[in-house]
Design a protein that fits this description.
Elements: H1 6-11, H2 18-41, E1 47-53, E2 56-64, E3 71-79, E4 95-100, H3 103-116, H4 128-133, H5 149-159, H6 167-173, E5 175-176, H7 179-185, H8 189-204, H9 215-227, H10 230-239, E6 245-253, E7 256-263, H11 264-280
Parallel strand pairs: 1-5
Antiparallel strand pairs: 1-2, 2-3, 3-4, 6-7
Helix pairs in contact: 2-5, 2-10, 8-9
């Protein structure tokens, strides 16, 4: 099978057609806004490298949540069977297998990614049998492969740096690959959901996490909570920029915020027009 390369996967993971690509572009605008927010907030992310051999490298990153202080495990396996790329100084052109225990990644793309063979095999069980065996008919009816914001941020952090994918640097800081050690380091989806709910309960001063609550129910709560913050984050990120365009969410279309773009020039025109209309209003007749 054909494995993706990181930068192409971030651009268009499923090689979508024009109609699908438009919807994906809107989602990626949200991810890009989060990435810009993360760049201003965090200098670096906790990262650990493992080297299996010259053709196989694992990168394990802890990506913070923008909600309640949780973190997610993102693991990317860079590998190649090409003798040409094996001599590259960087991992940028290596093929990848991926993993994230973010519930959005799991419940929207876990089944499709696993079926496509791009989930790291020895970590797949961390997503649970429910994810691996249940198509996401509501959130991903076309079974398109893809990623969530945690994977996007990890990928952008690696691609945005001249050092983090450099083999010479990696060899200085990496540990020898130990599958059992990496499995032990990476939390399961169930662990992440429990941590999320626990922090949510603490913030709201509610009762402790209910272990009997189904994984699917907790995932639904998580996803809805995350969606509620997307519009606000996009608005805040782009308003803080130095460009002339202001991008802000408009009315919801199909459950997703539609992006409405307005320039400062058009905004000024609108204000001027309103002022002019106010001046032209008829004055009340004077009583004699």
């Amino acid at each position: 099978m054909a494995y993706p390369v990181l930068f192409r996967f971030l651009e268009n993971p499923s090689y979508l057609d024009h109609k699908q690509l438009g919807l994906f572009w809107m989602k990626k605008m949200n991810y890009r806004a989060r990435w810009e927010e993360y760049r201003r907030t965090y200098n670096t992310f906790k990262t650990r490298y493992f080297i299996e051999d010259e053709n196989s490298y694992y990168v394990h990153m802890l990506i913070p949540s923008n909600n309640r202080g949780n973190t997610y495990d993102v693991v990317i396996h860079f590998f190649t069977k090409s003798s040409i790329h094996a001599t590259d100084y960087s991992l940028r052109n290596y093929d990848i297998e991926i993993f994230s225990n973010n519930p959005v990644f799991a419940f929207q793309f876990g089944y499709a990614n696993h079926k496509a063979g791009i989930v790291i095999p020895f970590l797949a069980h961390k997503l649970s049998d429910i994810v691996l065996k249940t198509p996401a008919k509501k959130n991903n009816p076309s079974n398109a492969i893809g990623y969530d914001h945690s994977f996007y941020i990890a990928g952008m952090a690696l691609m945005d740096s001249a050092r983090l994918l450099n083999k010479a640097y990696i060899k200085e800081v990496a540990s020898p690959f130990d599958m059992k050690e990496l499995i032990k380091e990476v939390r399961s989806l169930e662990d992440i959901m429990a941590e999320y709910q626990d922090n949510k309960d603490k913030d709201a001063n509610k009762k402790a996490f209910n272990k009997d609550k189904s994984l699917l129910d907790r995932a639904g709560e998580f996803i809805e909570d995350a969606k509620s913050k997307v519009g606000e984050l996009v608005d805040r990120t782009f308003r803080s920029g130095s460009g002339s365009n202001v991008v802000k969410p408009s009315k919801s279309v199909g459950g997703k915020p539609a992006i409405k773009q307005a320039t400062r020039k058009s905004a000024t025109r609108s204000i001027t027009t309103s002022a002019t209309k106010a001046v032209k209003r008829k004055k009340p007749k004077r009583k004699i």
